[in-house]
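Quick one: structure for this chain?
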Amino acid sequence: MPRIRIVLLFALWLNVFGSTVIGQTQLSPKKEILKLNSSAVRHRESGDFEKSLLISRIALRKAIFLKDNILIAENYNNVAANFNALAQFDKAVFYYRKALSYADLTENDTIKQRINNNLGNMYCFEKRKFSTGIIYYKTAIEYGKKISDSTQLAFTNLNLTWALFDTGKFNEGEESLKLINSYYKNHKNGSLAVVLNMLNGMYYNFKNEDSTADFYFREAIWLGNDKQGKSDLSYSHLEYSKLLMKLKDYKNAYDHLEIYTRLNDELYAEEKLEKANIEGINFQLDEYKRTIDKIEYEKDLQFQSLKKSRIIVLLFIIAIFVLLLFLNSLIKNNKFRLKSNSDLLTANKELIIANKKAEESALLKTQFVSTISHELRTPLYGVVGIADLLLEEHKELSHSPHLNSLKFSARYLLSLVNDILQINKIEENKIVLDRLIFNLTDEFHMIKDSLSFIAKKNNNIINIHVDPLIPESLIGDKLRFAQILMNLVSNALKFTKDGKIDIIAKQIAVEGEMHSIEVKIKDNGIGIADVDQNKIFDKFVQVGRKELDYQGTGLGLSIVKRLLELFGSDITVESELGSGTVFAFCINFECNFMVTNEIINNIQVDVTSNEIFKVLVVEDNPINQLITKKTIEKNGYSCQVVDDGFKALEILAQEEFDIILMDINMPVINGFETSRRIRAEGIDTPIIALTAFDKNEITDEAIMAGMNDIIVKPFESIQLFKIMNSLILKSKSLV
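Got it. Here's what it folds into:
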């Protein structure tokens, strides 16, 4: 049976503070929501949980429409209180935490204090996770100190003391107990009396001051008998019985334990009766449904049996006829089989040879794509890096159209290489979806910012529309999702001039923790003819190039379709020439606050340091040496560059470095072999592979060679320094 705790009622706060503070300053719609809140609380307190939840749902919609985080938090708090009363504690915790997430967006410390206190009660006395509950209590106390509310502080300290005593932490709870005794001495709050005397009795029992403990337990029981509440009285009898057992007064200990059991049974009976009134109808409806299903099933069985009996004779005759035909065919086929066997043996040998050639061809294709991508990425690293260095060292060139065009062209060529690699990975089933936390609105704005150059070039406007019902934190492969959006939006921008592109997201269904999100990319560009709409998702296909020359490979939409298949989704297109195009798809993303918190807690925080770290760069390409050295030194790091692996081994024998950036494809001795020899020398310095190879192709060999991470060129400098800092600080913490 869930323990009944001392909680400040939501109705008291709403009636006292809502009418005097909020009501004086808010507009009419907010007054309407406050009125609905009051009604929902009254229905909950009267036991009409269904009506309370219905009214809270209406009020919540209005509060979300007004974007009033305080009112949203209040409604979620009431919903949680309903589920708490219905003993659905997991749901109660979920909605309390949701209420707290909105309360934390405000400056209202009163509601933060109250929700943290409620969460403390849930974790300590319903879910029995005391360590988590105590954290919430302590947070509530800090907010209580800010608002200088001695009453709320007293109640939260009372709950905290009880939780600490229940877990045997009497010394830790001593200070809280003193605070409550001081408060009670000045205010004589009757709702605290029974539990406060019981806690004093528990404390002095722990201190072995038996006579003082006996006094407080008797006082708690005397006050409890004079009040209506049975819960606090029952626990007073229970704790007193423990003292009597210690004093070997077994008869009285048994009597008080028996009273505790009787009071618990009464409370349980009342609660059970209340739950029965709520759950009985649902159970009866389930019974009716099962009865109806059973009748329908028996009726169907009777019909099927009758139907089978009529056709069984006909089937028997047909079976005999078919058997005769089969025997005749078997005789003929036996003769044909003998002849075919020899032909199949010959064909099988030819197939084995063809299959071997196909495997060799596929391997050659993979090696070719990998080699070409490496050879293209290496000079692209130089082009992009030099363009970035020019822009940083010569600020006057930041508005140069030639330099910006050079940088854009290099990134366009890099995008082409990545598209070809992406198609190759999908065809070889090498892609596994990740589980990352992301915010849908942030992803949309990131896409918008990334494509601002193309939008400005074609004089287009990008609009973003996100359904407010979509949770703030979703779990899924945000990188693949962003790639889908990037292809679709860039495609829309490319085929639209002086127009607008709408990125629209709408939540269409929720099943458990999975949220179905429909995404539409809408433009008012040139459109796609009906005859072309079935082939735009094929590789290397582009339509609409008769009058204007649109750049592109024709891989974008093909990649989009194949990536959506990995998500278990598909894409649709609606278009009309001259009126624009709408691409739409639906993806299921998970929303789970427990999993989200776990993922967030596992994310390593990049702690910056003022220390100057020494970096060794092993790179044979002079241009790449220059760019990497400049990038590292402009961020305050010390950098030395060597041309090959043997020189790296020589300098490591003489000097110590904080981290090593290792190229893979080098003459004489490659990066893998160099890393193996470094590790063989007992050098534990972190090594990052800085390479133009695709990461998935070299991950296994890099790990076996003793490398710590891989960064693919060209790279973002922020990504490089984040990984470098993380590995350096981790290495130093292990020393």
